[in-house]
Amino acid sequence: MRIEANFSAIKQTNLREHLVRFVLGGAVTVAAGLIARRWGPVIGGLFLAFPAIFPAGVTLIEQHEVKRKREIGQDGRKRGRLAAALDALGAAFGAMGLAAFAAVLWRFLPGHSSWLTLGLAVVAWMGVSGMLWVLRKRS
Predict the structure, then answer these.
(1) What's the CA dihedral at 98, 100, 101, 102 to 10 degrees?
(2) Which domain holds residue 41?
(3) Predicted local confidence at residue 131, as pLDDT
């Protein structure tokens, strides 16, 4: 599988799906705020880093695959689960890249240029995420 942007997928979503993403994303954000209020901003920030629309996105990916296979007379549950699992793997790799981004900021921001540090952090994020994706393909 190649990493690519597929803007035609926007046409495949309806208002209900956008509302599900909005509500679940908001719920995750509110939960992170409540956690931060109770246990402090460091712990709350860890939960805020959770991709807020991930649960809704994975569910909707599975539903789209099942529906697509059903339209051609096949059972798409296995395909839907595989598509959702692949999306989850990509999210995990992106989260590891985000950890690299945070590590670069934490290490270099206090004594270096903000723009240079931000650029290095973005390169670290993309590099770690991309490297993990390439390594996944090789194994």
Answers:
(1) 90
(2) 7-138
(3) 92
Q: Confirm whether 13 is domain-assigned.
A: yes
Of 64, 50, 48, 57, nearest in space to 18 by CA? 57
Q: Which residue has the tokens 């839907």?
A: 80
Polymer length of the chain: 139
Number of domains in the chain: 1
Joined tokens for residue 118: 């931000």
pLDDT digits (tens, 9 = 90+) for 53-109: 677 677 777 777 777 777 777 777 777 777 778 778 888 888 889 889 989 988 998
- In Å, what is the CA distance from 116 to each residue of 18, 95, 105, 107, 109? 36, 22, 10, 13, 9
Residue 1 forms part of a structural domain: no
Report how far residue 49's alpha carbon sits from residue 120's, in angstroms, rounded to the nearest whole number: 20
Phi, psi of 106 (to 5 degrees): -60, -40
Residue 84 lies in a domain: yes
| Helical residues (DSSP H) of the chain, grouped into ranges | 15-39, 41-48, 54-71, 77-108, 114-138
